[in-house]
Design brief:
The chain is α/β, with parallel strands linked by helices. The chain folds into two domains: 236 residues, Aspartate Aminotransferase, domain 2, CATH 3.40.640; 122 residues, Aspartate Aminotransferase, domain 1, CATH 3.90.1150. It has 13 helices and 14 strands. A seven-stranded mixed beta sheet has the order 1-9-8-5-4-2-3, with helices on both faces. A three-stranded antiparallel beta sheet has the order 7-6-12, with no helix packed on it. The chain has a two-stranded antiparallel ribbon with strand order 10-11. Helix 4 packs parallel to helix 5 and helix 4 crosses helix 8. It starts with 12 loop residues before the first helix and ends with a helix. The mean pLDDT is 96.
């Protein structure tokens, strides 16, 4: 089925490319001329530059955000019999990688901000809990400072899933700096996107970084000599070069996302009671990977926008605990009511760094028309 054409799309990657075409083309040409396409100097340089941006000692590039999570869990020693706590309102990969390692995903409800509920985490902890994965949902920092305090004396790892939140801050500190590691996805639509799959893990833990570098390349300490089982999960040099070209623009792009979000916030605030808007505490800096609203009439609103040429997206229609893949865990509908309701009510509106102001205003006006 052909993809429908929208006059106002969710994002505009071709337009982004045109703005930095010279830098991107130069980066690609540099890699092709070098003849080095797997790991190498481009990857090393990107790892150093992202570490400097985050204020962490080590970054290890991997093949995807999913691999960033999986390799981190393996490097931390997650094995069969262990439990890993995570929100059920989540992307598939978080539960998937835990199950693939033979460990048990332990799901929990979310708060109204769609982020992990610290009190729910505390209730979910057992003697078997090895790690907690906190997702910074849609670019809004989760309460990882409180989670870090909760887990500090329990010998339980805090892993930050920063796939949607590169550059977001909590009390002035960037996400990824609160747990043992921050896991990043550079899927093309992300705030910092590659031109294909790519990911990274950032950490201050030198032993974790060393383990990750081994695991991503078949656990070879020397060529053709493997000490244990790893993966082929190396960051391509082409993707690293593209990410290097984009990284200097990230803060400006995040600022532009925030400005577009302010327009939405101001334009829709008078619909309080009909539509729920993101609420951002003063000590948190949201980077708006998505600008997501909630309404019981979500599906109607989506259809209304589409009929008028405006794209919107339902990103998480099902919580993990009711997916068939996790039926063996024994969860049922109704176990996590906040997450289940949010999955039925949340809609992401068009937002990207270069979105024209008039496009945002047209979406706002159309939403007003819908609720009339």
């Amino acid at each position: 089925m052909p993809t429908p054409s929208f006059s106002i799309p969710m994002l505009d990657l071709p337009g982004e490319y045109q703005c930095i075409k010279t830098d991107i083309d130069s980066a690609i040409a540099r890699v092709i001329a070098s003849g080095r396409f797997i790991l190498g100097e481009e990857v090393i340089s990107f790892e150093r530059e992202l570490s400097a941006y985050l204020g962490l000692a080590h970054t290890v590039g991997v093949a995807s955000g999913t691999d960033a999570l999986k390799l981190t869990l393996q490097a931390l020693g997650v094995t069969p019999g262990d439990e890993v706590v995570m929100p059920t309102l989540n992307y598939i990969s978080d539960g998937e990688v835990v199950a693939q390692l033979g460990a048990k995903p332990v799901f929990m409800d979310s708060g109204e901000d769609m982020n992990i509920d610290v009190a729910a985490v505390e209730r979910a902890l057992t003697a078997k809990t090895k790690a907690v994965i906190a997702v910074h949902f849609h670019g809004l920092p989760a309460d990882v400072d409180k989670l870090a305090d909760l887990l500090a004396d329990k010998k339980i790892y805090l892993i930050e899933d920063c796939a949607q939140a590169l550059g977001a801050k909590l009390s002035g500190n960037k996400v990824s700096t609160f747990g043992v590691a921050g896991c990043f996805s550079f899927f093309p639509s992300k705030n910092l996107g590659a031109y294909g799959d790519a990911g990274a893990v950032a950490t201050d833990n030198v032993h974790l970084a060393e383990g990750l570098r081994l695991i991503r390349a078949h656990y070879q300490r020397s060529r053709y000599q493997s000490d244990a089982f790893g993966y082929n999960s190396r960051l391509d040099a082409l993707q690293a070069a593209i990410l290097r070209a984009k990284l200097p623009h990230l803060d400006d792009w995040n600022h532009r996302r925030q400005e577009a979000a302010k327009l939405y916030q101001a334009g829709l605030t008078d619909l309080t009671g009909k539509i729920g808007l993101p609420q951002v505490p003063a000590h948190k800096e949201h980077v708006y990977y998505q600008y997501a609203v909630t309404t019981p009439r979500r599906d109607e609103l989506k259809a209304y926008l589409a009929e008028r040429g405006m794209e919107s997206q339902i990103h998480y229609p099902y919580p993990l605990h009711i997916m068939p893949a996790y039926s063996y865990l024994g969860y049922k509908a109704g176990d996590f009511p906040v997450a289940e309701r949010l999955c039925k009510e949340t809609l992401s509106l068009p937002l990207y760094p270069l979105i024209p102001r008039e496009n945002v205003e047209r979406v706002i006006s159309t939403i007003h028309d819908f609720f009339k």
